[in-house]
Design brief:
Elements (H helix, E strand, L loop, with lengths): L8 E10 L2 E6 L10 E2 L2 E3 L6 H13 L2 E7 L3 E5 L2 E14 L9 E5 L14 H9 L1 H6 L1
Parallel strand pairs: 1-7
Antiparallel strand pairs: 1-2, 1-4, 2-3, 2-8, 5-7, 6-7
The structure holds 8-OXO-guanosine-5'-triphosphate.
Length: 140
Amino acid sequence: MSSENITPLAVSCALIVQNQQVLAVKRSVGMDLAGYWEFPGGKVETGENPEQCLIREIKEELDLIVELISDLTPSVFDYPGKRIQLIPFLVRIKSGEILLKEHEGAVWLGENELFEVNWAPADIPIVRELKLRWSEFFTN
Ligand SMILES: Nc1nc2c([nH]c(=O)n2[C@@H]2O[C@H](COP(=O)(O)OP(=O)(O)OP(=O)(O)O)[C@@H](O)[C@H]2O)c(=O)[nH]1
């Protein structure tokens, strides 16, 4: 099958913002793309929409309850053998303390630190959009 015909795998991810910073998490050994940094989230399951997926994944991965603030532009990226559509949401923490259940690290990044981690390739356009829209997100 040519790559044009691959149905993308929908993956929701959360740009968790707090104190003028966004949270990045590091994929653990054993996960695909181990060692890369990403936004927490995961695959949209049958019967749920991307927003429901996001709320579920953030509870599962970080033990946080989050609320949605805004959407960003989805990023479609071809990894070997799979095409993903990464669907980003800007969120804030409603309750809970971060508990890393799956990732091996987490870091809060300010506007000028956004490119200091080695992002999963699909995340790069999203990080660029976050940087471009930073003042919009942080002054509202
Ligand atoms: N959650 C999340 N996944 C991302 C991001 N960027 C990115 O390329 N991905 C990819 O999206 C796919 C689905 O994410 P996932 O969190 O459910 O990954 P997983 O370990 O369950 O996937 P697997 O079952 O294929 O090993 C993975 O291939 C992951 O590498 C991101 O920012 N957040």
